Amino acid sequence: MRGMDTQDFDAIVIGAGMAGATTAAHLAATHKVALLEAEESAGYHSTGRSAALWIGNYGGPDARALTLASRAFFENPWPGFASAPLLAPRPVINLAPESQRAHLEAMIAEGTGIEPIAVSEVATMVPALRPGYAVAASIERDAFEIDVASLHQGFLNVLRKSGGVLALRNRAGRIERRNGAWEAETSSGAVFRAPKIVDAAGAWGDEVAAIAGVGRIGLQPKRRTALIVDPGQYDCTQWPLLGDADHTWYVRAEARRKLMVSPADETDMNPHDVQPDELDIAIAVERMQEALDIPVTRIEHRWAGLRSFTPDRSLAIGPDAAAPGFFWMVGQGGFGIQTSPAAGALIASLVRGDDPGPLAPVVPMVDPNRFRRSRA
Ligand SMILES: Cc1cc2nc3c(=O)[nH]c(=O)nc-3n(C[C@H](O)[C@H](O)[C@H](O)COP(=O)(O)OP(=O)(O)OC[C@H]3O[C@@H](n4cnc5c(N)ncnc54)[C@H](O)[C@@H]3O)c2cc1C
């Protein structure tokens, strides 16, 4: 029986990180949407902890296609969406010590718009580069930093303006299909009811599916660490994003002339409010210092976030063939921000049953049912 506080919607979206926010915004024109978020603020988990980059050559074919398809939205978002540009140029430079030379050459050959650049030229751009660290380097000029907060708020504003509901502090704890509709009862005691439900719960994607009685797809959250240091005498504001070809460390200019450093770690974790590990912090500093002559006297800030991958590291976007009205929007890994505009458009078209248009080639790549054979 329906409780007194049951609210009816056209679609329920679980999780108000970037995946849930873009889903809700793209559905809002045609659906009355309830966006449920367990935490006090939207974006508390992975979305608020990213490196905020748009790199066309990052990830597998599905991530690259969604990233490229998102470019137009980033450059020309919906009217009134954001008050400042969402992208700012930030070229990517990869450095290769001798042992990584072959990998760098393969990256240049395989990538689009990745060119060789003389190490001496990199040293002019980044005077902290230690002579002798790299024997070769590449540059991807067409890369950007994303204003993640504006993007995320922009999507949430579209939801609100369309009459949708963002329900913070509402962890969905019971999810059931009854009489042709999904019911989600949350930690606040409210019950949300809709014929369609989208699982955009990030690291908790499998957990939410299990609560709903839907087979897991085998999502694996992996911890990634970041820290902020003061680069001392160097003004790093115009430095490119800099890392090694094997992706064992990278640095990125931050606000206030600070430098973000990451050891590009991927440690398997259960979903939780993940915190950095001291060893990963030490590894990040050591690897960065092999390449850059930057003394580190103090770590100014540190954090970690979860990057959640499906078993084949491609995204999972679309309907679950075994659960009517249940849709997946998970497995965003390390590219959930840069793919979000196109991924949102894709899941919305699949929920509506519309033709996904130019995104049609991506549909089989991200079909969540590809894991069905391995499901329990
Ligand atoms: C250090 C780091 C660097 C990164 N760099 C980049 C980058 O440069 N570019 C890029 O594109 N991506 C990057 N990423 C990846 C990106 O941050 C993620 O892919 C993206 O944020 C995932 O968004 P999400 O909405 O799926 O997850 P989240 O932001 O974690 O949102 C999921 C939400 O679901 C909520 N939830 C879970 N269970 C329930 C429930 N039962 N009921 C209600 N709510 C629930 C959670 O509270 C959470 O808020 C990086 C990640 C990290 C950690």
From TrEMBL:
A molecular function GO annotation: oxidoreductase activity
Source species of the chain: Falsiroseomonas bella
Gene Ontology terms: cellular component: cytoplasm
SUPFAM superfamilies cross-referenced by the UniProt entry: FAD/NAD(P)-binding domain (SSF51905)
Record key words, sorted: Oxidoreductase
Pfam families given in the database record: DAO
Residues annotated as transmembrane: none
Record-given protein name: FAD-dependent oxidoreductase
Highest taxon of the lineage: Bacteria
Xref: Gene3D superfamilies: D-Amino Acid Oxidase, subunit A, domain 2 (3.30.9.10), FAD/NAD(P)-binding domain (3.50.50.60)
InterPro entries: FAD-dep_OxRdtase, FAD/NAD-bd_sf
Taxonomic lineage of the native organism: Bacteria, Pseudomonadati, Pseudomonadota, Alphaproteobacteria, Acetobacterales
Residue ranges of every copy of the FAD dependent oxidoreductase domain listed in the record: 10-350
